[in-house]
Hints:
Blueprint: H1 2-7, H2 22-28, H3 32-40, H4 55-62, H5 65-73, H6 88-94, H7 98-106, H8 121-129
Amino acid sequence: MVELLLQSGASVNAVKAKGSTALVLAVAGGYTEIANALLSGGTDINKKLLDGVTALSCACASGKLEVIQTLIDAGANIDVVDQEGSSPLFFAAENGHVAAVQLLIESGASVVLVNEAGYSAVAGAMTFRGGQFIAGGGG
């Protein structure tokens, strides 16, 4: 269906009224095939929403490993930050997605970035998850 829309001239970078893109909606839902079709159609992988969040940050917040890997492989900026200075690693850590954190670090994500509140991804994980993530209790 997505391929048909793209062949018909649909814009892969169209933005909804609230700033969402088709790629962000696809990755938030974990729809890797749709994300791949949009990426093949030339969508801007690093396009930011109104709050500065990208598709990779959305995927990391929800812990969708297959989608995260797809975006990294397609060239997503792994250290992009939103308006608050939070990177994809921060989103994965604060939501307790251990495997996503590991994938990001193995892919070269910076572990020293600090957001505007002064938190690194590790500090954010401890603050938002009560240290559970660091102790291995994250999911």
